[in-house]
């Protein structure tokens, strides 16, 4: 009798463990979007990258350099986020047919401008020697 009770408890434990594992697997699949890929709803043509506002053209368009992709894009000023200026860094979502989203990355802008200032200071010190 004790032996059957232990087997029954073990069987119940294994069933609960199996259900927990299945639930965990479902949560992982949902979290990482595997269903989107399997069902074809995820757009794999999107690329998220960073770009740098290099300069303004005379016709109120900005030239943004995307070093990672070795490309430059020209964007009308009205399509840029408010507060965009030369040396601003953007997080850009590109699709096959153009830009989907463009956001100013304030932290990257601050960090990269600080690096540029430090390099200029080093260069000036070297010139002075």
Radius of gyration: 27 Å
State the helical fraction.
40-55%
**Integer tally of domains:** 2
CATH class of the largest domain: Mainly Beta
* Element string (H = helix, E = strand): HHEEEEEH
Q: Provide the spatial order of strands within the biggest beta sheet.
A: 3-2-1-4-5
Span from first to last CA?
93 Å
- Poorly predicted regions are none
What fraction strand? 25-35%
Say how many strands there are: 5
Per the CATH scheme, the topology name of the largest domain is OB fold (Dihydrolipoamide Acetyltransferase, E2P)
Give a short account of the largest sheet: 5 strands, antiparallel
The averaged pLDDT comes out at 84
The chain-level structural class is alpha+beta
Protein name: DUF3006 domain-containing protein
Transmembrane segments: 12-35
Keywords: Membrane, Transmembrane, Transmembrane helix
Organism: Oceanobacillus chungangensis
